[in-house]
Amino acid sequence: MAEWATLPRDILVLIAEHIDFFEDFINFCVVCKSWQSVTSILGKSRILPPRFPWVMLTDIAEKNYPKVTGDVYPADMLVEEVKKNEYIEGMHNRRFFSISTSKTYEFELPEATRRKCLGVCYGWLLTIGYDLQINLLHPFTRLQIGMPSLLSFKSFENLDDYDEDFNPQDVFDFFVKKAVMSSNPRNTSNEDCIVLAIYGECRVLAFARPGDKVWTDINVPSNVYTDVVYYKGKFYAVDCHGVVVVCDINDGNGPIATPIARIPDGFHVLNYKYLVESSGFLLLVIRCCRGVYFGDKEDVDRPYHYTTGFSILRLEECYGDRSSHEYPYKMTQVDSLEDNTLFVGYNASISLPSSKCVKANCIYFSDDNAEPYSTQPYGGGHDTGIFEVESGSITLHYASKFMSHLTPPIWFI
């Protein structure tokens, strides 16, 4: 060990610069003090994702919010508590659960305290606060990159059109539904890093780059989009009816989304939908849900809403006479993910190869049904589990024990 501890610093820096994942960098740092000292040289330049997905658990500050009584909605109480901005012991720490080690880690992360958090891939989060500021945040280095504020979305161009008692701060926690990035902002220029978001009551699309002043709307053929993905150099989105669109943000007549495929007949259009790239293909994943929220009869033994299964469709180009097809792509159902695993929820949907700690042919899902959060005593987070594609069975996941009105557990990838 003494010989390892005396390695020249420039050699240690060279080794550290070739580490690709956060867990490996942590292991590097704990070898000895001389190795750990290299981190001060690298600083925040080592912006690394985790090797395997982690689960970011609920805000520690939220566990001390007062319990709901009477007719006061939990979400209303949440806003009031955020406005107070009172200090709670440990509130600036955030817990992460590693599926590779089955351990929970706690980090000091005040940048995420009392802020809505969304996973946008490459090891980054998008955070939105009561101050209406939106940031990209790398939780392991605490590096932040500013994005245009919530008020710069087109919905807020004319605040005079809203009721006189409307306050934009009242919607900070659910205004942005989903967001994805085109590339890691630390590895590319601001011009190349684009964040595309689903936002507003109508769930439409807008994009921005770090350094922009406003979010720019995309002209869409419909609304209520449920997911977006960056696939082969372009953004794609799917709406609640199962129509997939491709976005052209450089169109000469302005950013526009064009329909390219539609879900086949026979699939329930009200179920949640995700887009994810897997083994080079673009998949549409349909999440089937039940419960009172979806019109079922009340059952005291069942949650207000819960997932019952998933269906998987693959987009394939239509060949031959295009005039005989309504869309240039069709969707074909597939019955296996083979050696891949999907992660869906309040994060950029992603596919990873299976491993000893990630089950093959499974879908890991977190609770992203935001609408019921405001009326439930403890918020959302219970509908989290692992769906096995072959058997159709679902097992609960560790994260289902953690509930929140602001940011239920999300996959951090």
UniProtKB/TrEMBL annotation:
Span of domain F-box: 6-39
- KIB1-4 beta-propeller domain residues are 96-387
Coiled-coil residues: none
Under the heading PANTHER family, the entry gives:
OS06G0707300 PROTEIN (PTHR44259:SF114), OS07G0183000 PROTEIN-RELATED (PTHR44259)
State the protein's name.
Answer: F-box domain-containing protein
What lineage is on file? Answer: Eukaryota, Viridiplantae, Streptophyta, Embryophyta, Tracheophyta
